Amino acid sequence: MRYSRLKIIFPIGLFLALFLDGSLSNVFAGHLFSYPYSSALHLVLLWLIFAIFLDDRDDLAVGLWSGFVGLVFDLYYTGVVGVYVVALPLIVYLCRQIKPWLDLNFLTLLMVYIINLTIVEAFVYIWYSMSNVIDGNLADFAVYTLGPTIAVNLAIFVILYYPVRRLYFSVN
Questions:
Q1: Rounded Cα–Cα distance for residues 126 and 42 (Å)
Q2: CA-based Rg of the chain, rounded to a whole angstrom?
Q3: Which ranges does the record mark as transmembrane (predicted)?
Q4: How far apart are CA 123 and CA 144, in angstroms?
Q5: Residue 84's closest CA among 54, 51, 124, 117?
Q6: Rounded-to-integer distance, Cα 154 and Cα 107, Å
Q7: Rounded Cα gap, residues 99 and 114, in angstroms
């Protein structure tokens, strides 16, 4: 019973996160994208990391869902197909590899999220730089994009950690 409910809750939460990524970015665009700073919300990444680390059975098809939602994200939000289709499953793979080595608590998951957020943002920056979508140097990226993005997403992580944790443990 628990697993079947989690199999329903996970994709619903994933697509809710996908919708909220764009909607909240649009609603708070004046605050998230005020020149020269820009912050990207990564609710999809947050939901995937929660699913990997809070699902104790590891039976969810998080890798497949991450590829699918990455494709939808690329088609709908970025217009550059391939960036999130590769980045999100890569993060899922990396998280699954390190999960057995970690003692899961709030601070550990916070650090894992910071590292994965940095990996995704760096991956997107490199991809866009190689594709000539953006033209900027690494220092500007670190100061004006990566720093604010980490700050905003960490605040969201702190707010959502305990409710999402309770959600995952309530379906046990």
A1: 18
A2: 16
A3: 35-54, 75-94, 106-129, 141-162
A4: 16
A5: 124
A6: 11
A7: 15
Q: What angle do CA 31, 109, 170 make, to 5 degrees?
A: 100
Count of C-beta atoms within a 10 Å radius of residue 2 = 10
Domain ranges (residues) in the chain: 2-170
Q: pLDDT digit of tens for each residue in the chain (172 aa)?
A: 455 677 888 999 999 999 999 889 888 888 888 888 889 999 999 999 999 998 877 778 899 999 999 999 999 888 888 899 999 999 999 999 999 999 889 999 999 999 999 999 999 999 888 888 888 788 888 999 999 999 999 999 999 999 999 988 887 5
- 3 state SS of 63: helix
The one-character DSSP state at 143 is I
Residue 82 has φ and ψ, to the nearest 5°, of: 125, -25
